[in-house]
Amino acid sequence: MSEKLKVGILGGTGMVGQRFISLLENHPWFEVTTIAASERSAGKSYEEAVGERWKMTTPMPRAVKDLVVMNVNEVEKVASQVDFVFSAVDMTKEEIKRIEEEYAKTETPVVSNNSAHRWTPDVPMVVPEINPEHMQVIDFQRKRLGTQKGFVAVKPNCSIQSYAPVLTAWKEFEPYEVVATTYQAISGAGKTFKDWPEMIENIIPYIGGEEEKSEKEPLRIWGEIRDGVIVPATTPVITCQCIRVPVLNGHTAAVFVKFHKKPVKEELIEKLISYKGLPQELNLPSAPKQFIQYLEEDNRPQVKADVDFENGMGISVGRIREDYVYDWKFVGLSHNTVRGAAGGAILCAELLKAQGYIAHK
């Protein structure tokens, strides 16, 4: 019998579900044994259910092709097959909240890529290098749910990954005002250019709900646990614009920052390249060895050259320059479906296993 934890993917036929499946191939700790999706996919083999819609650049892993897709709404049945699940279901926010808690109440931990529970006060929303201590709120959540092992944990929005880690690395300089514009890839909408030909040579200056997430979610990550809930930080104030651009993978951010303490450029760069978190200390399987890299060239970071840094789990930063309105400005880049979605959730699950929150049933 495999020592690996048995993993289910909820919403396994969509783009993020596919990314989970491709990233978990040959994972040292986790094995995908169950895939659940909508009723129309249930009963088909995974290969048949996905059909022509496989969107990854690597082939579909052989181990999942013949898995029979289960109905995601048959919660008890799916939960009985697995130790924990990753959630990437495509439903309304209220439906997602309900079904993720239903899975948790079967004593099945849920690590979610969805936004539905990001503001549930006792659900941790974690970038493992930044706020691993927030997982402790799970103890309070379990009391609310009446569970011993089950809980919901989430990862934050993909758009903040290209600048929130940078601001965290600069925390001691006390950033207090931030302006960010993100240039976001079409895979963030679950699309390829084949699906969305109108994005070719086009820019759309609106992504529904994204600006609010980009402004508020970093503050929750920087918050603290008080009385069994996560209380968001109040600074820095962030204002953001989010723009869809004709790029397949990779979210770029152009960011301006004001600091209470005035760093010099060399200090800013040193803080980035030396920044490490608990995943690096624990040597978790998906953790990048170098979390943030700084690129000296004026024309970097670039999506084509840099989006796959550290297998898509690292952050690339360049163009740190003094600004005559703000103090400093920079450009950041992150892989939106790896670090920003499935890969970030897998790293959260690795952290939860290391902390003892996820184990064999």
UniProtKB/TrEMBL annotation:
Domain Semialdehyde dehydrogenase NAD-binding per the UniProt entry, residue ranges: 6-138
UniProt key word Metal-binding: no
Protein name in UniProt: Aspartate-semialdehyde dehydrogenase
Top-level class of the enzyme under EC nomenclature: oxidoreductase
Presence of keyword Oxidoreductase: yes
EC number: 1.2.1.11
Residues at the catalytic site: C158 (acyl-thioester intermediate), H251 (proton acceptor)
Assigned protein family: Belongs to the aspartate-semialdehyde dehydrogenase family.
Short name of one Pfam family: Semialdhyde_dhC
InterPro entries to which the protein is assigned, alphabetical: ASADH-related, Asp_semi-ald_DH_pep-lack, NAD(P)-bd_dom_sf, Semialdehyde_DH_NAD-bd, Semialdhyde_DH_dimer_dom
GO function term, MF aspect, one: protein dimerization activity
This protein's UniProt keywords: NADP, Oxidoreductase
Family annotation (SMART domains): Semialdhyde_dh
Source domain of life: Bacteria
GO biological processes: methionine biosynthetic process; threonine biosynthetic process
CDD domains documented for this protein: ASADH_C_arch_fung_like, ScASADH_like_N
PANTHER family in UniProt: ASPARTATE-SEMIALDEHYDE DEHYDROGENASE (PTHR46718)
